[in-house]
Amino acid sequence: MRKASRLLAAIALVITLVASAAPAVSAPIAGSAFSNAWARTDQPVAKGAVQRTWLWGPEANTPTLMEPYAESPNGSRTVQYFDKSRMEMTHPGADPYSVGYVTNGLLAKELVTGEMQVGDATFEAHAPANVNVAGDADDSSGPTYATFTGLLNQPPHGNGYVVAEQVLRNGQVVTNLAYANAYHVTLATQVAETNHSVATPFWDFMTSSGTIWDGKNNVQGALFQYAFYATGLPITEPYWTTVKVGGVSKDVLIQVFERRVMTYTPSNPAGWQVESGNVGQHYYQWRYGQLGLAPMPAFDHIYVIMMENKEYPSVVGDASAPYLNQLIQQYGSATNYTGVAHPSQPNYVALWSGSTNGITDDNNHDLTGTTIADQLEAAGKSWMVFAENYPVSSGTPGCYTDATASGGPDGTGTYARKHNPAMSFTSVNENSERCAQHITDFSHFDPAAANFSLIVPNLCHDMHDCPVSDGDRWLQNWLPAHILNSPTWNQTNSAVIITWDEGTSGTGGGGHIPTIIISKQTPAGYVSATPANHYTLLRTIENAFGLGCLQNSCTNGNLQQFFGGQP
Q1: Is 54:18 a contact under the CB 8 Å cutoff?
Q2: pLDDT digits (tens, 9 = 90+) for 358-405
Q3: Rounded to an integer, what is the distance from CA 298 to the centroid of its chain?
Q4: d(CA 338, CA 447)
């Protein structure tokens, strides 16, 4: 019993050794390709069939995210973060059974050099990661990734050399024979491509066989398809160091590879002496913490609800909008969001196409050009416009091009074409099949119907013809019943953005308007004063679904900050 207790305590220290990033939050592993990559090495560990280091981690730490990558479709690739690494799908159209279909990125190299890879030959220069490589996050004596920046070109020793070099936090390397005498770790092989040697414990692990999952059963096989598959090539020599784990000092051998950091802790239990460091956690902490970037989740559904003609102070903090202010406290608010023009219609067209297309009135228009609808369809995504009181014939959505309509199966009220931007483009209003498939009234609302839904209330419920209190009351009744309490919302990763077309001032071209962001990633009460407008919102939708950009959205940021909390 005492032996078992010591083993459990030792394993707890192992977990602490690499847990230097913020606590992870579990998330389902996305898609069969990512799940299969995880299951091959880590399912046997999760099921207790083998005792060895995780190669990815017990589960994912984030939902799938979209990150920029020049050679991926529309300039973005799908990624998902784990404790130990990041899974990437850079070329989704490639052979899904090929070894390189799911990659794990040169994360360790990026952390050490600060060179963030955003394309095959495209890099962004940043400061190296000031994040501890191993041990306690608050250990001020252990090495960080930045510690190794000056050690990339250190010459190797020959095979069989007993490692005695110790690295200090400031990057200084000293010879410490105590490590060599105590542990007698040698160098196993030298890699010509990077002119670095690999320590024997790591080489033995990288070339080992063991229990793996073949898709049906646990079998015995090579842990990696080839020696450097998971780690990449070595970019430093191995170095001894001493780090604190749970406040207790432990001797650890560390070596940085392109993709991973490998550690060897002689005092750990068998099976856990060689480990893959928590590079996935550390990289996320660097990219989205130290560098201040924010991830864009790969949403299943985005719903944009467009309200009308209210300046920011008439809603935010106003007693006539208790429900909207409740949402602001519960979710997030963009406090420096503006319309792009006056009157209403150019704002809708801007959101839909990335430009006002020269419109300066609310008349009927027949425009040409690419829209968010075209982008979505080209990417295999779906879209809908749900417009309250939009006319339907015999219960079947139709293509209605007149300026207004009243009543219908979804109740009393008035629909206005100027608030339905899809109907301003001939690619829809001259295509009855497309129009019928994608535009309907509220009686046909289904939160699962499309990846992107533009929701257009009637002229009363959107506050155009009625007081703020009427629109607030309508939202309180409609939004939970149709979206926030729905199985679709509860079972997917989705977002609701409530915004207004324009305000009453000239700020930003269309007035200072309220905008509320609702998602599971948005911290309660989060506010952002970053300037934003309808082009920002369009870019947000484009980035979330891995699309390109349209006209003015290309030069605007997005609302990533509302979805960038630590996983």
Answers
A1: no
A2: 999 999 999 999 999 999 998 889 999 999 999 986 445 568 999 999
A3: 6
A4: 27
For residue 1, which amino acid is it? M
Using pLDDT thresholds of 50, 70 and 90, give the confidence band for residue 22: very low
Do residues 235 and 109 touch, judged by C-beta distance below 8 A? yes
The reported pLDDT for the residue numbered 5 is 36
DSSP E strands, 176-284: 187-191, 196-199, 209-213, 218-222, 239-245, 248-256, 261-264, 274-276
Q: Are 166 and 187 in contact (CB under 8 A)?
A: no
Q: Which of 3.40.720.10, 3.30.465.10, 3.30.70.1280, 2.40.30.170 is the CATH number of 296-478+486-563?
A: 3.40.720.10
- DSSP E strand stretches across 279-324: 296-297, 301-307
Q: Which two tokens stand for residue 375?
A: 């982008």
CA distance 413 to 317: 28
Peptide bond into 343 cis (omega under 30): yes
* Those residues with Cβ within 8 angstroms of residue 476's Cβ, 6 or more apart along the chain or in another chain: 323
Which long-range contacts link 465-468 to residues 24+ away (Cβ below 8 Å)? 465/414, 467/320, 468/310, 468/314, 468/315, 468/318, 468/320, 468/321
Quick one: which of 122, 130, 459 has its CA closest to 287?
130
Spell 291-330 as b/e; 16+ CB within 10 A means b: eebbbbbbbbbbbbbbbbbbbbebbbebeebebbbebbee
* Alpha-carbon dihedral sign for residues 489, 494, 496, 501: negative
pLDDT in tens, 108-119: 999 999 999 999
Q: What pTM, to 2 d.p., does this model score?
A: 0.66
CATH 3.40.720.10 domain position(s) in the chain: 296-478+486-563
Q: What is the mean pLDDT of residues 268-290?
A: 91
Q: Give the model's confidence band at 137: pLDDT under 50 very low, under 70 low, under 90 confident, else very high.
A: confident
What's the rounded Cα separation, in Å, for the pair 442 and 303? 14
Residue 157 exposed, middle or buried by CB count within 10 Å (0-12, 13-18, 19+): middle
pLDDT score for 32: 85
529: three-class secondary structure by DSSP: coil
Is 24 a residue whose pLDDT tops 70? no
Q: Kindly report, residue by residue over 71-86, the tens digit of the pLDDT.
A: 987 677 889 999 999 9
